[in-house]
Amino acid sequence: MESPADTNLGGSDEESRLRSEETRTRSTGPVTSWEAELTSIQHSLKFVLKLKDEFICPICGGVVLNPQQNSCGHIYCFHCLQTLLETSSSSSPVCPVDGAVITPAEVFQDNCCKREISTLQVFCTNSPACTCVVTLHHLQEHLRSCQFEPLQCINPGCRAVLQRRFLQEHLTDTCPQRTESCPHCGQPQQLHLLQEHVQSLCPDVEVDCLNTCFQKVLRHKLVEHQELCPEVHVSCSYSRFGCSVQGKRGTVDVHEDAAVNHHMLLVLRSNDHLEQQVEVLQQEVLLRQQEVQTDSLLLAGLQKKIRPLLQQSDIQESDVSASQRTQSRQDDVLSTVLLDVQQVSRGLPGLEELEQLRRSLDAVTQEVSTAEALKEHLGRVEDNVKDHSCLLDLHEAQLSCNKQRLQELEATSYDGKLIWKIQDFRRKRDAEVRGQTPCLSSVPFHAGRCGYKMAVKAYLNGDGEGRGTHLSLYVVLMPGDFDALLPWPFRQTVSLSLLDQSGAADHRSLSFRPDPASKSFQQPDTRAASNLAVGFSCFCPLDELQDTRDAAYVRDDTLFVRVKVDMSGLDL
After folding, report:
1. Which runs of consecutive H residues, i.e. helices, occur in 28-137?
2. Which of 59, 151, 206, 505 has the most C-beta neighbours closer than 10 Å?
3. What's 417-565's CATH class?
4. What Cα–Cα distance (Å) separates residue 558 from each residue in 442, 499, 535, 543?
5. 150 upstream amide cis, omega within 30 of 0
6. Does residue 340 contact residue 347 with C-beta atoms inside 8 Å?
7. What pTM does this model have?
8. Is 197 strand, coil or helix?
């Protein structure tokens, strides 16, 4: 033992084990909370006064925690005694002081000794920095507020260990892993990432316009600024009518104000051209309608012709059935006649009986021949019915193709714009939820009379990341008649919009500029229906489609989708 004030209590070896689990569970009670907390520092405690020998556990050499007394009078820690009993060998465990056998049934908790130990004066474990002296059972309570207690920094990634008195300053001022608010957007950021956030990501930082218009614009408004920047190169808004002027937006605005008469002439010419195209389309529609009417009349005539044949076929089938029944009866008669002939041959009957049998046999043979002729006739009738059915199917397929072509001609546009009306929105969305129709496709439209052929695809219940939460809209390029003459890849800006039906014109729009490296914007393969679709999987949340305070995108169970292709620079 060392001096009373500097007692560092050591431990001793375990000497015996107990084999009975039942005996182990009967030995002692649980360790109380403050004693359990002291177990980890049990052997580093420094008491003010020298620790009495009876207060030192003979098993571990430390101060006794939750004392348990044996019949020999020695006291052990609850945890030490429990371990000794659990690890005992086949022989009974013995006291390490005097070798007395430890009987679990005779072990009891010494509460008197426990009270004495709990009131012993002990130095703080952070001495000599901390000079506090407390009773043993209040030591942990003191350590939870001791300003000299070493604690680890709670910021993720920081391994620094500091005394409690320095921890708060470290957390808020000096920790390299601390979190601070961005001075621009107010979002919390780790300190070592804050500069990169401000320089590259923060949406509320003012940055220079990409078009060197010498304006400072908030980063999240750069795209919106592009629609107004005077330094952006644009084409004249009358380019679709044939005006070829291009330049900076400010210059083009001046041109548009100065060339009103010229633009009106271009509009009139374009209007005349469109009227001619409308007349041509109307003539095509009339021709298609006449073809449809002709096909309908032809189909009706064929139906009239085939109806008697079907009735005749039914009659022939009935005749064949009757003939088959007759033939079956005649076969039975023939069998009977043959038996009779055999009997006659054996019994040598008279000539009259033989003649009668011969006449019966001839009659049966004639009926069999008649039945065979009816079978052949029925086979020819069935062949005629099949030929007429095939011809009817061909006419129905041609009629369906003509109707589809007529619908496409009526809905096709050539100005790069399309307004798509989606009716029965709720029913179609429910069908998509059940997996019956994966998506909806619009009729094709064109960016120019001889331009790109495109279509819109809509997932009413969302696609990809937006499945079940958003409306998804995409645009696809389709094989067109003039693809060999067009520039590839496709580079025109495409805008998609949901049209507000409330009258407030609060349309929801998103645009994208094609990536020239993407296969979706290369020339479509004529063997495929279309290229891969490109667009927005999270175009609009589904809960914002119905009537809201500001807009209504679905009204009367109908949704309107508008697509617009920027025709700038196209001469189609």
Report:
1. 33-38, 78-86, 111-118
2. 59
3. mainly beta
4. 14, 11, 22, 15
5. no
6. no
7. 0.36
8. helix
Q: How far apart are CA 276 and CA 265, in angstroms?
A: 17
CA 205/CA 226 separation, integer angstroms: 17
| Domain 4-142 of CATH type 3.30.420.40 | no
The 3 state secondary structure assigned to 304-349 is: HHHHHHHHHHHHHHHHHHHHHHHHHHHHHHHHHHHHHHHHHHHHCC
d(C-alpha 340, C-alpha 344), whole Å: 6
495: CB partners within 8 A, 6+ apart: 509, 510, 511, 563, 564, 565, 566
Enter the tokens of residue 206: 């003012």
What are 265-322's pLDDT values in tens digits? 888 888 888 888 888 888 888 888 888 888 888 888 888 888 888 888 788 888 788 8
- Phi, psi torsion values for 425, nearest 5 degrees: -60, -50
Give the closest residue to 564 by CA, choosing from 481, 454, 439.
Answer: 454
Tens of pLDDT, residue by residue over 375-410, are 888 888 888 888 877 888 887 777 877 776 676 666
Residues in the chain: 572
Q: Which residues contact 438 (CB under 8 A, 6 or more apart)?
A: 432, 459
- Amino acid at site 360: S
DSSP 445: E
Strand partners, 216: 208
Task: Report the candidate in 324, 322, 333, 328 with the shortest Cα–Cα distance to residue 363.
Answer: 333
C-alpha angle 73-78-80 in degrees, rounded to nearest 5:
90
Ordered by start, the domain boundaries in the chain are 4-142, 262-411, 417-565
Q: 552, 529 in Cβ contact below 8 A?
A: no
Instruction: Indicate the burial class of 495 (C-beta count within 10 angstroms; 0-12, 13-18, 19 or more).
Output: middle
Tokens in use for 75? 């006291």
The torsion defined by the Cα of 253, 254, 258 and 261, in degrees rounded to 10, comes to -10
Rounded CA gap, 314 and 528, in Å?
Answer: 47
CA distance 197 to 190: 10
Tally of CA atoms within 13 A in the half-sphere of 337 that contains its CB: 19
Tell me which residue has tokens 């002729």: 373
b/e map 452-487, b = 16+ CB within 10 Å: bbbbbbbbbbbbeebeeebbbbbbbbbebeebeebe
- CA R_g for the chain: 50
Average of pLDDT values for 488-507? 92
Q: Are strands 179-181 and 188-190 parallel, antiparallel or unpaired?
A: antiparallel
The one-character DSSP state at 170 is I
Spatial CB neighbours of 454, under 8 Å, sequence gap ≥ 6: 444, 445, 446, 447, 475, 476, 477, 478, 563, 565
Q: Which CATH number fits domain 262-411: 3.90.550, 1.10.287, 1.20.120, 1.20.272?
A: 1.10.287
Cα distance from N-terminal residue to C-terminal residue, the chain: 104
Token couple for 5: 């004030």
Instruction: Note the helical H segments in 348-422.
Output: 351-411
How far is it, in rounded angstroms, from Cα 320 to Cα 318?
5
Report helix, strand or coil for 5.
Answer: helix
